[in-house]
Design a protein that fits this description.
With 356 residues, this protein is mostly helical. It has 18 helices and no strands. The N terminus and C terminus are likely disordered.
Length: 356
């Protein structure tokens, strides 16, 4: 009775309060989970909403509304691979909802899959020719590929109805920069950031990245650097929830204390040198546009140096070995006992590191 009355209510605040009160007593119901999640999404609390939506999905695994909201929240917290899977599952159930195809297009843009993004936007505009956000995204896509006339056509069509649409303004900013109208581009970019406000929109991030690249192509490295700084601030805000429990400085202190207190690592039994095995590795880390590519290029000119470009070589190993002291202990003894983690010290790949 409480659930039915709550769902029939037109009072969204009351619906949220009732759902919250019932769920706090460990009485799970998919409609209540979904109702509370909707309120959390409206407040920008996407990570918290995901917990309720996953609970609702455990009851109704093929419900397209739940799947669509899960995909949207995952998109907002920048987990695009999982978001794409949820949206594809929702579209498989209800293939003619334009907003699902639109969110799918945004996720594909986050995955840099331009071809599939273009097809997804085509599907949106086929279902809803006046879909404002899809038109703005189409403008942004054209601007990124330096199709200036197409970008302006789509963006101006959006701005004629929504003069402060952040993505359309961002697309025009890129078009202006591509046309060497640098001051106009900077003003448009400023307007785009003001219009986006505190809203977490992956497309605004893409517009900033596109503007930075356009500045760089046009010979304005300082503007490119400042734009990347704005992009990094936005990304830090998006991902802040992931690091609330553990700050980077705390992790550095923990690892420093570990190595100060631990015994010396045993010397590894290294194989004899071979021409096809590297003698060592150098990992070059840095922020976007901080000079890492230039330094890599300089180092790779050495006759005995091979550069591998930007690869995520250590992501899995870091999760296995560096999250706690026990993991570092396993790394110190990295031999056959660690083979079940998928990382073995073959070819001299693992050696004790020097910590300074």
């Amino acid at each position: 009775m409480v659930v039915n009355d709550t769902m029939r209510s037109e009072n969204l605040t009351g619906k949220f309060q009732t759902s919250n009160a019932v769920l706090s007593k460990s009485y799970l119901h998919p409609a209540l989970c979904n109702a509370r999640a909707a309120r959390l999404v409206s407040k920008g609390l996407y990570q918290q909403a995901l917990a309720d939506l996953e609970a609702a999905r455990s009851f109704l695994p093929r419900d397209p509304m739940i799947l669509g909201r899960i995909g949207y929240c995952l998109m907002k917290v920048e987990r695009p691979v999982e978001a794409l899977a949820a949206l594809d599952a929702a579209i498989a159930v209800v293939p003619r909802l334009a907003h699902l195809h639109y969110h799918r297009a945004v996720v594909l843009s986050m995955l840099n899959d331009t071809r599939e993004m273009h097809l997804a936007l085509r599907d949106v505009l086929r279902l809803d020719p006046d879909h404002i956000d899809a038109l703005a995204s189409r403008a942004l896509l054209a601007a990124q590929f330096q199709e200036t006339a197409t970008a302006r056509s789509y963006a101006e069509r959006v701005l004629s109805r929504h003069p402060r649409h952040a993505v359309a303004l961002g697309a025009l900013a890129i078009a202006d920069i591509n046309d060497k109208r640098i001051e106009a581009g900077k003003n448009r970019l400023r307007q785009s950031l003001e219009a986006s406000g505190s809203i977490q929109d992956p497309r605004v991030e893409i517009a900033l990245a596109g503007a930075a690249n356009a500045f760089d192509r046009s010979g304005y490295p300082s503007e490119a650097f400042h734009t990347c700084n704005a992009l990094n601030r936005m990304r830090r805000a998006v991902h802040a929830y992931r690091f609330e429990a553990s700050r980077a400085v705390d992790e550095v202190r923990r690892r420093t204390n570990y190595f100060r207190q631990s015994a010396a690592w045993p010397s590894p039994q290294l194989p004899a040198p071979r021409d096809d095995v590297p003698e060592g590795h150098v990992f070059l880390l840095g922020f976007m546009r901080s000079g890492t590519t230039l330094l890599e290029t300089v180092l790779s000119t050495g006759a005995e140096v091979v550069a591998t470009d930007e690869r995520e070589f250590l992501a899995d190993a870091a999760r296995t070995f560096l999250l706690d002291d026990e993991g570092i202990d396993r790394l110190a003894c990295s031999g056959a006992a660690n083979s079940h983690h998928g990382v073995t010290p073959t070819g001299g790949r693992w050696r004790p590191a020097e910590f300074h």
